[in-house]
Amino acid sequence: MLEEFIHRFADLNVARNQNHWSTLTLNKAPHKAFTLLSVIDLIAIGFISENMMPPATELVENFNDYWKLVMPLNRRSSMAYPFPRLARDDIWTLVPTSSQSLPVNIDSISSMSKLRQVCSGAVFSDDLFKHLCNSADREVLRGVLLENYFSAEIRSLIAEQGIINQKSFTYGQRILNSTQPDSVHEPENEYAEKKIRKQGFRKAIVKLYDHRCALCGIRLLTPEGHTIVEAAHIIPWRESQDDNPTNGMALCRLCHWSFDEGMMGVNPDYSVLVSKRIQIDNNFPGHMSTLIDRQIIKPENPQFFPDPTNLEWHRSNVFS
Ligand SMILES: [Zn+2]
What we know:
With about 325 residues, the protein is mainly alpha-helical. The protein has helices spanning about 1-10, 30-45, 55-70, 80-85, 110-120, 125-135, 135-150, 150-175, 190-210, 235-240, 255-260, 275-280, 310-315, and strands at about 95, 120-125, 230-235, 250, 265, 270-275. Strands 1-2 form a two-stranded antiparallel ribbon. It has a two-stranded antiparallel sheet with strand order 3-4. A two-stranded antiparallel ribbon has the order 5-6. Strand 5 (about 265) and strand 6 (about 270-275) form a beta hairpin. Helix 1 (about 1-10) packs parallel to helix 7 (about 135-150), helix 3 packs antiparallel against helix 8 (about 150-175) and helix 8 packs across helix 9 (about 190-210). The structure holds zinc ion. Zinc ion binds near residues 213, 215, 218 and 254.
């Protein structure tokens, strides 16, 4: 039975155009392959354990990470294109959000928010789902995607991204579930280890702060999974090697930069501290001085509040 699915995975109906798609993707559109690889990663870590693939943020994030690996920076895409179209390849069946049937124009949907309005997920055939839950079969199908949609020179990079997607998710979960995350255990590859750690820390921190900047409170999350916040270390990793959530805060890009440059900090009572340098220089964004003495945004669970010792270290060593 696996043979049949190998054939289907190898023969997805994708756009082919050598002016549009480079030889890295064998002149084919990679959207469907990236979507299936992203699903495979989520099944591998047990995030998806039942036969229903929701168009979840975690899936979109994996898709975006694969996309960034191969595509030029300025070329963006959305998983909203391939997700419904995979139904035409007999890969899965779409499930409408309500009792109504799916709209006839579902193939022309171009944003995740629109897709989520009409479609609550996709279901594989029982047979295919069984193969995807079996690790050996799953890796065979991953190999089929790599071989048929990507050139030999980038296959190992994409396979490595799959490992990073899986291990960073697990690393993020471990950070949230224990106070002392273990090391990544990827001694043969320093690059992958760093990426797993960074992505895992980011996933955990961004989730804890629900995509909101701890210092200014801004929250912008697009339906395509792009968020304005980054995961900041209070004591930098190079000093502390500390990925505990209590050594992190979700910060928007401006606040992250200002925090790392010592222009913003946090008082012992968790109020925002703003450097005098900002208050006397008119070139700094005006809203920053309005944050003075305001309480920072903290995670719901006090166990994950920024550690006062770490904040004290930042005030003494970075803030000025
Ligand atoms: Zn901010």
